[in-house]
Amino acid sequence: MSRKRLSSVLTMGLMGLVPFVVAAQPAAAASSVTSQYINNVSNLLLAVALPITIIVEGVLFYAIWKFRKADEAKPTQENRRLEITWTAATAVVLLFVGLVAYGAMGSPYVLSSQEDSQQMMEQPDTTVVHVDSYQWSWQFHYQHDGTNFTSSKLVLPAEKQVVLRVTSRDVLHSVHIPALGLKKDAFPARTTYIATEINSDSVREEPYVLYCAEFCGAGHSNMLADVIVKNQTTYEQWASQQAQQAQQEASGSSSSESSSPSSAATTNATTTTSNATTTNATTTDGTAALAAPSV
After folding, report:
1. By CB atoms within 10 Å of each CB, which of 75, 83, 85, 256 scores lowest?
2. pLDDT of amino acid 187
């Protein structure tokens, strides 16, 4: 066997192994309900695409090998039955892909509509976080036991339904947390929603990273935020601490504001007394000075 023919055989053999290598890769564990839907779609499409790829590549390699010595291509007659067969097969494959994709895209955990998200937010066990984006940072607003507080980190509970209300103060941004399978654009003067439930296996002390996935200006590459997933007990403790701290800060601000008028009144009274004393002393000294010559 010549070197050229050997290289051709090896090339075709290696190309034929590619689908099997791809299929042999272990599937990553889903980190959230959202990523589970996406993984299911990918696995089903791979299950369909893999045999089709093997068949098509097999026919191609067979044709290359079979007619490798042919000098000129010979014209062939139209085979209507074959054309109908591959057209029907293609239609079936596309229909399958559409049905599988619709099954995932129709879930509120993948494409979260306002109606679905509002229904979830009305449930008492749902954690709602308001995601506020602006050039070039993030703020996350929470409510716990009737107290509002703000965090620079996105802290989420595991094994609990979560709804993120996403908006922008200025230009287009995009919330993207690849590790959790979450992504949603942020628009000015408009609210979009992300609904998900994070699996307990995703709980860890090391933070995930939230990126802005929409170019938004000079600081776009630095528009990052930490995402911390906690179990429900630890999350409740964190939220309670943040709420208490917010209440203390609010009480301190109220005390400062209420004490300000009293301080102002005291200052005014002191100033008035001081002015009166100075006036009296001047008048007395002046009177004595004027009276002295007459004596």
Report:
1. 75
2. 94
**pTM, full prediction:** 0.67
Structure tokens at 239: 């939220």
Q: Is 107 exposed, middle or buried (0-12, 13-18, 19+ CB in 10 A)?
A: middle
Candidates 213, 205, 202; CA nearest to 33 is 202
* 136 upstream amide cis, omega within 30 of 0: yes
CB 150 within 8 A of CB 139: yes
pLDDT digits (tens, 9 = 90+) for 170-185: 999 999 999 898 999 9
**Going by C-beta distance under 8 Å and a sequence separation of 6 or more, which residues neighbour residue 129?**
140, 141, 142, 154, 156, 162, 163, 164, 165
Q: How far apart are the first and last CA of the chain?
A: 144
Following DSSP, what letter does each residue of 192-229 receive, concatenated?
A: EEEEEEB-GGG--SSPEEEEE-S--STTGGG-EEEEEE
pLDDT digits (tens, 9 = 90+) for 41-67: 888 888 888 888 888 888 888 888 887
Kind and range of the H or E run holding 156:
strand 154-157
- Domains in the chain, please, with CATH? 3-67+80-105 (no CATH), 114-245 (2.60.40.420)
**Residue recorded with tokens 């098509």:** 56
List alpha helices for the chain, DSSP H. Answer: 3-24, 33-66, 80-105, 114-121, 232-294
Residue 269 structure tokens: 């009274």
- Coil, helix or strand at residue 183: strand
Q: At 115, list the tokens.
A: 């109606």
What would the two tokens of residue 128 be?
Answer: 């709602």
